[in-house]
Specification:
206 residues, mainly alpha, 2 domains, two-stranded antiparallel sheet, extended
Length: 206
């Protein structure tokens, strides 16, 4: 998918702030201005097509230059969001402005960039633990499993629930949910993401 198609997709998903303004319309105006700014950024997607990467297809099917351009666009939006999140609204005379402490912003922005990796690393750590073979066990919600096992041992016609997929298929699904997911396409060429994919691939070799 080209950056144009991606930007148009994001543009269509910008929320409109349609609430009626109250006596104090500052909040309303602020939401409306933010919506307009995001639309302008997505409409001007060509300004972010500055990648010098070679135009070759990556293993996930996205062109290398498009992938870098995605980063330019998404990181701009993320930067603006973090500025709004940590900024403090203040007034200088009749002019309102956003006061942002540099150190607080840098910390918030760094955390926003690393958060997806933290979640993926937690997922990878869990998926690569010795959790196979997986067995269905009884708990407070699935409270009839013990009874099902008892009837099965009595050779009745009551079948014990089984896993819907074989072990290899389940492992493949665990890997593909990260490695082949378009959600993580913008991370595909990052060393940290490649390392996670390599760890997940171990699942298929066991």
């Amino acid at each position: 998918m080209s950056i144009k198609n991606k930007a148009m997709f994001w543009l269509r998903n910008v929320n409109e702030y349609s609430a009626e303004p109250s006596d104090s319309s500052e909040l309303y105006d602020g939401y409306r201005a933010l919506s307009g700014l995001m639309k302008q950024i997505y409409e001007d997607y060509q300004a972010y097509e500055i990648s010098a990467a070679e135009k070759v297809r990556t293993k996930i099917g996205i062109m290398a230059d498009d992938l870098e351009n995605y980063h330019n666009l998404t990181q701009t939006i993320d930067c603006l969001y973090q500025m709004a999140a940590v900024g403090v609204l203040c007034a200088e005379g009749s002019v309102s402005c956003l006061e942002i402490e540099k150190d607080i912003f840098k910390k918030a922005y760094k955390n926003s960039v690393t958060f997806p990796f933290q979640m993926l690393e937690n997922y990878t750590k869990l998926a690569t633990k010795p959790i196979f073979p997986i067995q269905i066990k009884q708990d407070d919600f699935f409270f009839m499993l013990r009874e099902a096992r008892k009837k099965q041992m009595e050779e009745s016609f009551f079948a014990m629930p089984e896993l819907p997929q074989d072990e290899h298929t389940m492992k493949q699904m665990l890997v593909n949910s990260v490695v082949d997911s378009p959600v993580f396409a913008v991370l595909a060429e990052m060393p940290r993401f490649k390392c996670l994919c390599s760890k997940l691939d171990i699942l298929l070799k066991n």
